[in-house]
Amino acid sequence: MFFYAPNDVDQGFVQKILYLHVPLAIVSLGGFVAGGVLAIMHLRTRASKWDMRSYVAIHMALIFGVGVLITGSIWARASWGTWWEWREATLVSFLIVFLLYATYQPVRFAIEDRERQARYASVFAITAGVFVPLNFMAVRFAQPSYIHPRLGGGSLTGEMLATFLLSLLGMTLLFLTLVKYEMTSKHTSAQIASLRRRLLGEDPSELPVRRSAAPTLTTTTP
Amino acid sequence: MSSDHGHRPTPPGTLATVGALLRKELRVELRTLESVPAMTLFAVTTFVLFHFGLNRSAVDGDLAAGILTVTVLFAAVLGINRLFVADEEQGGFDGFLLAPVDRSALLLAKALALGLYLVAVETMAVAAFALLLLKPPLTQALPELAGVLVLADIGIAVIGTLVAALAVRTRARDLIGPLLALPLLVPVALACARALTPLLSAGGAGGIPGRWLTMLALYDLVFALIAYAVFDFLLED
Amino acid sequence: MANVAAIELEQVGRHYGERAALSGVTLELEAGRTLVVFGPNGAGKSTLLRILATLLRPQAGSVRVLGHALPAERWAVRARVGLLGHDPLLYRELSGRENLVFHARLHGVPAGRVDELLEAVALTRRADEPVRTLSRGMVQRLAVCRAVLHQPDVLLLDEPRANLDPAAIELVEPLIGRAAGRTRVVTSHDPAGGRLEADLVLGLRGGRPALLASPADADPAAIAALYR
Q1: C-beta of residue C20 within 8 angstroms of C-beta of residue A205
Q2: CB-based burial of residue B1 (10 Å sphere; 0-12 exposed, 13-18 middle, 19+ buried)?
Q3: Residues B20, C107: C-beta atoms closer than 8 Å
Q4: Which of A103, A189, B201, C154 might form a disulfide with C81, Cβ 3.0–4.6 angstroms?
Q5: Closest by alpha carbon to B98, among C84, A27, A32?
Q6: What's the predicted TM-score (pTM) here?
Q7: A75 near A21, Cβ under 8 Å?
Q8: pLDDT tens for residues B124-152?
Q9: Where are the alpha helices (DSSP H) in chain C?
Q10: pLDDT band for position A182 (50/70/90)?
Q11: CA distance A116 to chain C (A)
């Protein structure tokens, strides 16, 4: 699974949140962009498994995003004395991206036809995926980075760097594991539903069409 | 029918299709007057609200730029919400989809229409703004102002059309339109407001720093390409 | 040259969520012939027409219209089919003439044809009034004009005579009836009349083909049974 290396830093407990916050942010944004790439695959191949992957990636990235905002706030409070800071481009950019992706599931839910839902979600994912880097660039362009510590330029050395990289790796693995878990879970429940239908002899053409924001893998045999 | 010459009609090229669509679009708008008057009225009302909300009688500089930009954006949302409604409700989508034409023509035609509506609304809204709230004289930088707004309009039109096409066939379409469009338009709002600030500042116009125009142009370009690439997928079934 | 099949369907299917809107439809229709489709509402008649019109992609099986495979060659097919569905596909605020001219432009049809058709359905006098002021019968006549504007080889007609009085039916008959000589797929709720104009009868129930026969072999009782 994933392992989280306990870190022994001499800068106080608060500094440790950084090891959570930054990897969370990187993986979250990576997840959003990955969701866009997976959506491209879906539109190209029309196979619902790509839509499933795209959905799960975005869904998970959104959850991680909540973690980013929370850990970021805690750290901000501790370091800068305020829960939020408008002058900081990175925060603002992330918030905008978060707000955009928060609409992903409501949009899916608002479309009943599964096939169209998947298609529209892919269009959303691609557009939003392109938007993520552009947004960060745009906001940074407008407000040169203020007080959000940057990680480049040798500010992390030795132990700290190692711990950070380890944490990043761990976070990525966690993300991928959770993604895999959710996908397997969905796949299994789709199979169970299909088996149940066959056992009970239910005629699929008489099933009420239930609305759902999540894609289901089409397990109906051709 | 006796006129069966065996002559097959040749489908129109993209430009001709865009022309036909745009004419239809503008004709319907002129008949129903659903979008432009509402957007304009909304803009003027928003100025009044800002006056009360901010408790200011005259603004300039970055405050003026911000108010104008945000107002234009919210008025645009009204236009976005209405953009495809007539087509959705009166079967216009099917009528178009049955034609042997390039689907992207619809994107282009609708974006042009939305852009034209925005220009019309802004002409009146900016005039109202100058009368109601703006401190420095408007004439000091009118061409540059127009230029910035047009660049912003292109971005709003492209993103707006894409979002409108997506939202119109979902359930809560009036909600989803703004929820999608506004975050995507943040960079446009940003660049527009920054670019307008020196133009609306008291004491003569400073020139526009070119970086904002470049940013607007680049953003417009990227999203125009994205919209062109994905639009088809929204239309077909 | 042998009579090329205008429409070939092989195990065509389309689902809506988990429900099959259409499944296992297989048939062949020769050029110039008429297929009449019976079935209760929701049986898949409209879905079938929309697939043939290239508005919906078939999700199972294969579809060939005029020798072209769908959805791959839908561009070639689009100009040669005409759809008359439940929706007239007309903008209510525009006049009949403006609507038809718009569609004519989209199909590259010369404007003269619009006037021809308006005269054929006796709507010339009211052609310049907004569609929302017209009666349902007139709107249906306009819709017929729209469907045949580009002289399609295949006509897809969803209850074409709905809302039409006998005089109007006579007017549109040369355009969309058997006399037009085109390949036609017509949905109908009238077992007697439907069988009269059919060369092939298809009965759908729950998306599945319950009946496929020539009109002589199609038992009226079987058709009626579809609706139970």
Answers
A1: yes
A2: middle
A3: no
A4: C154
A5: C84
A6: 0.88
A7: yes
A8: 999 999 888 888 777 777 888 899 999 99
A9: 45-52, 74-78, 96-107, 112-120, 136-148, 166-176, 191-197, 220-226
A10: confident
A11: 10
